[in-house]
Amino acid sequence: MLVDKGKYVRVRKHILSPDQRADNVPEDTKKVPLKMWIKGRLTAEAELFEEAEVITATGRRVKGMLKEVEPKHKHSFGEYVEEIQQMREIILSEVWGDDK
Amino acid sequence: MSYDVKDLLSRRNEIMKKSVGIDYDDFELDGIGFDYDKMMNASGYTLDDVRAIQRRSMVGNTPLIELENLTRYARKFAKPGFGARIFLKDEAANLSGSFKARRAAISIHKAKELGYKGVVAATSGNYGAAIAALAAKAGLKCIIVQECFDSNNVAQPEILEKARACEAYGAEVLQLSVGPELFYTFLNVLDETGYFNASLYSPYGIMGIETLGYEIVDEMRQKINKDPDVVICTNAGGGNLTGTARGVRKAGADKTLIYGASVDLHGLHMASDKDFNRKSFTTGHTGFGMPFATNPDRSDVPRSAARPMRYMDKYFTVNQGSVFFITEALAVLEGLERGPAGNTSLAVAFKVAQTMCEDETIVVQETEYTGAGKHHQPQLSFAKKNGITIRFGNPETEKPGTDIVFPASANDIVVKDVDLDRIRKSYLKRFKDYNLTEDDRLFLMEELRVMDKDKLDALLRQVN
Q1: Last residue of a domain, one of B142, B167, B201
Q2: I want to staple A48 with a disulfide (CB 3.0 to 4.6 A). Which of A1, B22, B57, B384 is the partner?
Q3: DSSP code of B275?
Q4: Residues B161, B223: one domain?
């Protein structure tokens, strides 16, 4: 998929490969690269999942793999959690008894 | 690699000096110590200056309220005549929704005064939104560097929410996967942009919180005509407790005790890729609280202004499940939907109040805004997805990273009183092979609040 110049996107790049990681990191972290994500506008037309360059909010030019076009916020209030409902009932009953 | 780590680290001090506007060498003493008071006073800002700067930006003067229903709840489980009145400083009312705005206000003011074009802060917490909001108001550019994802590209929901807030205020958010090498990227951004380092640990980052302690004492005197008996602070990097305690003392409340509280995350490694998304608190926990108490200068400036061991009278830990429980109680009993991380000290206060007399008071000195990602429902929902068991039972049996245990009654909340001498000994370990001078010893006594030389010697002997 070709993405137009000027589109607002997210790119990702590897900053340190596993062999470049600091000595003091735990074993599991040492096995994986250090990655970076950043958003900005494409400076030129680019293919999705290919190398691309963006201009960030502060005007910096950053290169990385084009991962997402017009990235949306995906965090939410999560799924229903039965235990929260139970805590609510415990608290109200311990404080107000049967009045409420 | 996009930058030369060795080159960056070799220029570390030079980059720091340029980006903080402080020459930390000015405060170094011969030997191991430095002049803390001189560093804190070097900015030239008085407490009144700080208050005036904050007031211009809708920061400070937050409501202090008595939690009557929570006090009533705590007294249910206390002996007759026991159960201190619990008060809460609603810091969520600050610009950007947390007490961090107090710290940001002074850093941003200083950055503007020194003529910087922009600011950079390394934070995955509320401080990012605070810096971003105040930078927006000051017309400064802003870059927030966050540790956000694990190696499978899964992000902590709470940190995603904080990134969203930063973007909403126009900031650039640079997100990283897990690892302390975040510091290299941070240095590189400072070097590349020439922006101000809005460190949480600079004197500005701490003096901004002094107003919080000062306001608490002032308002308590107005409300009940006496100083609070205890002020309790959620403790991570130590700045919250340090600044609050300094403000309490500046208000002349010499007898008020200062307690710290952290969520117990023992066994989880803060730099572990696998552990990263197995915790349900991204701040206010022992993973920061303990290492920063034992070595404050592990921060992103040469000498941290956050030095909690200088002020802490007691330090408590509490499990994740109990903090979630009290977060729920705060909402359904007091109509305050806040936290959860900021409610760590409230969970401890609930229990500690039961050991204090009815006519005594304990002030919980912060709240934080809640929302998508941050709220306890998305956090618990995320924990379940990551295979964490959620159950009711004895909170003492909670194993961080494996399960979250809620008390089946508020009476089952357990807090642990940390042995401060243990922290003191960890602090002293790195000096065990030093030939300490008399000045070094005086410095250590101040650092660790050890009142007499014999006690310091005894601690040093135990380390050796």
Answers
A1: B201
A2: A1
A3: T
A4: no
**Test mutation, A11, A34, A61, chain B, max B CBs within 10 A:** A34
Please enumerate in sequence order all residues whose Cβ is within 8 A of that of B341, keeping only pairs 6 or more positions apart, or say none: B158, B234, B263, B281, B282, B283, B284, B285, B323, B368
Question: CA of B62 to nearest chain A CA: how many angstroms apart?
Answer: 27
Domain boundary among B201, B232, B247: B201
The residue extents of the domains of chain A are: 2-73
pLDDT, residue B105, reads 97
Looking at residue B299, what is its pLDDT?
82
Of B42, B36, B204, B220, residue with least CA distance to B121: B204
Write the Ramachandran bin of A97: left for phi over 0, alpha for psi from -120 to 50, otherwise beta. left
H-helix or E-strand spanning residue B363: strand B361-364
Does B375 touch chain A if contact means CB atoms closer than 8 Å? yes
**Domain match, B151 and B275 both:** no
B186 and B280 share one domain = no
Q: Which of B265, B267, B278, B286 lies closest to B156, judged by CA?
A: B278
Tokens representing A58?
Answer: 């502060």
Angstrom CA distances, B215 to A62, B239, B249, B252, stand at 44, 17, 11, 12
Same-domain pairing of B141 and B90: no
Domain at A2-73: CATH architecture: Roll (2.30)
The two beta strands, B361-364 and B85-89, are parallel
B-chain residues near A88 (CB < 8 A): 328, 332
Q: Which amino acid is at B229?
A: D
pLDDT tens, residue by residue, B148-204:
999 999 999 999 999 999 999 999 999 999 999 999 999 999 999 999 999 999 999
Predicted pLDDT of residue B440: 96
Supply the CATH number for residue B184's domain.
Answer: 3.40.50.1100
ipTM: 0.96
Tokens read off for A71: 């990235």
Name the amino acid, one letter, at B349: A
Number of domains in chain B: 3
Give A79's contacts in chain B (Cβ within 8 Å): 381, 384
**DSSP 8-state assignment for residue B79:** P
| Mean pLDDT on B219-240 | 97
Closest-CA residue to A15 (of B12, B144, B185): B185
User: Is residue B165 domain-shared with residue B251, that is, in the same domain?
Assistant: no
Which residue, among A28, A71, A2, A46, has the nearest Cα to B274 in the 3D structure? A28
Nearest by Cα to B457 from B425, B415, B414: B425
Contact A58 B179 (CB under 8 A): no
CA distance B250 to B411: 36
pLDDT tens-digit map of B291-343: 999 999 988 888 999 999 999 999 999 999 999 999 999 999 999 999 998 89
